Amino acid sequence: MRKLCHRPWFLPILFLACLIGFSCTPSGDDDSAGPGDDDVAGDDDAAVDDDSTVDDDTATDDDTAPDDDAQPDDDTTLNPTCQWTVMDSGTKIDLYTAWGASPTDVYAGGGIPFETNGVVLHYDGTTWSSSFSIPYLPVASLWGASSTDIYAVAGGDIAMGAVFRDDGSHWKLAKIVWMSVLSSIWGSSPTDIYAAGMSAASPSPLDWTAVVYHFDGQQWTKTLLGSWLSIFYAISGSSASNVFAVGSDFEGEIAARFDGQTWSDISTGLSTMPETSMYGVWVASESDAWAVGDNPDDSGESKVFHYDGSSWSPQAIPAGNQLSGIWGSSPTDIFTVGYSNLTGNCVILHYDGSSWSPMKCDQGQILVGVWGTSSCNVFAVGSGGTILHYGK
Q: What is the pLDDT of residue 252?
């Protein structure tokens, strides 16, 4: 779940570092870049050298692969010919995100901060294999405009965010943002891409706020949004003029919407209780968006929120679940994933346009991300290298 990767637990460490003399000043201006980043961020010239420590051929450990024969039972079958099956990812590294250009060209990403390299896996329609490895930076989110234009954001719990791009031949570094955490990436086209998270607003060790970086095809620009110690965990949209970002601050869940010109706060209807968050968002239209997050009654369970164009409202879902990822193929075909507080197993809920119902998931793992191409081609990823596929 998002809490595994994206909770800003590094802030107390950052605060202590500042006290003992390390600089907490953000590096440069809004387009500040790290080593290897040209003035025009995202340009292929700002690439990690093929001989660098970023190894395209770094493989995952086959010996730690989950059992390919284990399969979760399908409790609610939307299509009698479709069912959930367990895929062999070839790794036990936690996975947080999935995206694909087609049913036979799918990527999954993850990692464990300070413990493992960040990984990107690729599925060719038959098997999963290693596509990319990033030293010690977990891959938090994936998005692409096409099979030759794919982006990954990395560094989920480390105060340095990085954006990588795959041009169809190999991955390259596109952008480094210092004193920032990147949690999610989404775009409407190759020249309209958004990366969200949190960033230092001043030299103060506690002056961090939610941030959105935008790439116009030439350069990245930075917009600070939200209040003190706020963060965006997820960003998504339905068009260039309808982009949603969701997350949390010290007062509860937060949400913002971009209409093509400006960002606006749309947190009406959300909780104002501390330590509640929204971790995932899927957008159908300006008046139809869905998000998953902590329960407003602070029960420790999750809630699904629906946005109707003016405010958010909590939706009725089965009790006892923690949810973190959400995706839909249409307003009447939406999936959300997580784990059960009651059984300790993974959880998959489906919305058919009128109500949410469970799909049995007997794997003892946490599901974090979900993505698909259709109602009968959906991928869910999670802890321990778990990848589930819903299809024929």
A: 84
Task: For 148, list phi and psi in degrees, rounded to 5.
Answer: -115, 20
For the chain (392 residues), the mean pLDDT of every run of 10, in chain order, is: 42 36 38 38 36 38 39 51 94 96 97 87 97 90 97 80 94 93 96 96 82 97 90 97 94 93 89 78 98 69 92 90 95 96 92 94 92 97 97 92
pLDDT the model gives residue 204: 73
Place of tokens 């961020």: 41
Per the CB < 8 A criterion, the answer to whether 109 and 100 are in contact is no
- What pLDDT score was predicted for residue 202? 81
pLDDT of residue 73: 42
Q: Which two tokens stand for residue 30?
A: 């809004």
Residue 301: alpha-carbon gap to chain centroid = 20
Which pLDDT score is estimated for 218?
96
| In the chain, domain spans | 2-391
Rounded to 5°, angle at Cα 304 from 141 and 7: 40
Task: Judge contact between 108 and 381, C-beta under 8 A.
Answer: yes
Residues 2-391, CATH architecture:
7 Propeller (2.130)
> How far is residue 284's CA from residue 75's CA, in Å, rounded to a whole number?
26
pLDDT at 282: 98
| 272 contact partners, CB below 8 Å, separation of at least 6 | 251, 252
pLDDT for the residue 11: 40
SS (H, E, C) the chain: CHHHHCCCCHHHHHHHHHHCCCCCCCCCCCCCCCCCCCCCCCCCCCCCCCCCCCCCCCCCCHHHCCCCCCCCCCCCCCCCCCEEEEECCCCCCCEEEEEEEECCEEEEEECCCCCCCEEEEEECCCCEEEEEEECCCCEEEEEEEECCEEEEEECCCCCEEEEEEECCCCEEEEEEEECEEEEEEEEEECCEEEEEEEEECCCCCCCEEEEEEEECCCCEEEEEECCCCCEEEEEEEEECCEEEEEEEECCEEEEEEECCCCEEECCCCCCCCCCCCEEEEEEEECCEEEEEEECCCCCCCEEEEEECCCCEEEECCCCCEEEEEEEEEECCEEEEEEEECCCCCEEEEEECCCCEEEECCCCCCCEEEEEEEECCEEEEEEHHHCEEEEEC
Query: Minimal CA–CA distance to 4: which of 94, 114, 117, 116?
Result: 94
